[in-house]
Structures are given as C-alpha cells and as structure tokens.
C-alpha cells in the first residue's frame, strides 16, 4: 500500500476548508486510515468543522479497542458529529457549520468505506468507478428520475448537499466494503476535484500514466481550484509501466492536448462489475 495526498487553497478562496489525513501504517486499532473532509458554514466555521472532524476521528481511532473497521468508523463518525454539533451550539461564530466526510480502511484485501456528503471515493480497476454515493439534492432527483445528470438545473444546484456531519443529532452514514485486487487504485477527493475535472480525464490521468505517484498527485492538483485529492494504490508491484499511453501522458504533463488516437487498451474493462457490500 502506497499513498499520497495534497490539499490546495486554489486561486479563488482566501481559506481552505478541506482537510485530509492518510497513513499506510496502523492508526490505533485500524491497520491504516485515509480521510477527506470538506467543511461548510461560513469562512471560519467550515475550516473548523473539517479540521475538527479529521483530528477528532483520528484521536478516537487511536483510543478505541475495536477490531471491526465498519463498527469503528461508524462509532467514530458519531463521536465527531456530537462534537461539531456541540461546538456550533456553544459558539455563535460556528453556528450552522458541518462537513462532508469520507474515510477508508484497507484490511487484508478488503476496502471498508464510510461516507457522508458529496466527497467521493473512486476505484480504478480498468475503468474509474465511483463507489460512494453523493448525498446531494440533485443526485436524489436523479435517482427518482426527475433530473438528468449534467443538465443545466443539475449543474446549478449540485452544491446543495442533503447529509453532512455536525448538522443534526442523528448522523446517517453510508458504510460498505468491497474486495480489492492487485493493481487497484483508489482516489478520494472533495468536490473541488470532482466539480472541476471530468471523470474520464481523471481516469486517464490516474490510470494510464507511467509515473511516480507523488508527481501524479501534484500534477492532478495543478494550478486550478481543486481543493483536495488523495490517491492510494493497492498492488504487489506499485505503478508498473503502462503498456500504452505514454505519448498521452507526456502531452498531459506538458499541458498539451492529449493524443486521443493513442491505443489505450481495456479502458472500460471491468467497469461497474465490482461487488460492493452495504451495511446498515
């Protein structure tokens, strides 16, 4: 397991409200831990919410004695939710704050994920597949067949989220797991990336390059308003040379137009075929 992460304030904001944590080494009772949080609720409140969420969750994990990643993540998020809610009631300047939260743990060959909000976890196995589900107003309408993804109304209202940590007494968390295979790559990000970069481009950049992973993270972040990214690679041999696509990779690295004629093999192989177990 090899991971890198980066958060960047971008060009438009005066404060970065995204926070992350990643460790390939054991953290408390868990064999490893990866977190992305995106705060909301005002200039100072959003930064406090995401920072508190990450720090308090890591603190909880270090002190816990459980062994089941799903149970630990669920209890940890409940603890974080209580802390953010209490602070928002005690301090007027933090009133109404909250944060998205997605975390992951790899235990042996299984990936365990917890998610609230619209920060995402993707799995790249032949094709890039979003594993988490966005808790947003537009995605709920899409699920009901009342809105088309990518439409004008969708784009105008996509930032309205329907679930977050710290906004109510009860926190409804998606918890699920899936089996990993050698060579799998995991991408975790806030909407700072998913709103700015098309999934096909993310798939191409992440999956079809022969490059060092840390350079990849800094390249994907680039100079745009991409708030936070996290990439993990699950493999026995990390980052094997791509059998095709090197020309396209060079074009991307030089900020040139990629060669779409490059014969990338198996771009869509395995898409949508991953077995995901959901937990109540």
Instruction: Please state the overall shape, judged from the principal axes of the Cα atoms.
Output: globular
| Helical residues, percent | 25-40%
Percent of residues in β-strands = 25-35%
Measure the end-to-end span.
28 Å
Which helices and strands occur, and which strands form pairs?
Blueprint: E1 2-7, E2 18-23, E3 33-40, H1 43-63, H2 69-90, E4 98-107, E5 110-116, E6 120-125, E7 127-130, H3 137-143, H4 152-157, E8 174-179, E9 184-189, H5 191-194, H6 199-207, H7 213-221, E10 228-234, H8 246-253, E11 276-279
Antiparallel strand pairs: 1-10, 2-3, 3-4, 4-5, 5-8, 6-7, 6-9, 8-11, 9-10
Helix pairs in contact: 1-2
Please describe what this structure looks like:
With 280 residues, the protein is an alpha+beta fold. It is 31% helix and 25% strand. It has eight helices and eleven strands. It has helices at residues 43-63, 69-90, 137-143, 152-157, 191-194, 199-207, 213-221, 246-253; strands at residues 2-7, 18-23, 33-40, 98-107, 110-116, 120-125, 127-130, 174-179, 184-189, 228-234, 276-279. It has a six-stranded antiparallel sheet. The chain has a five-stranded antiparallel sheet with strand order 1-10-9-6-7. Helix 1 packs antiparallel against helix 2.
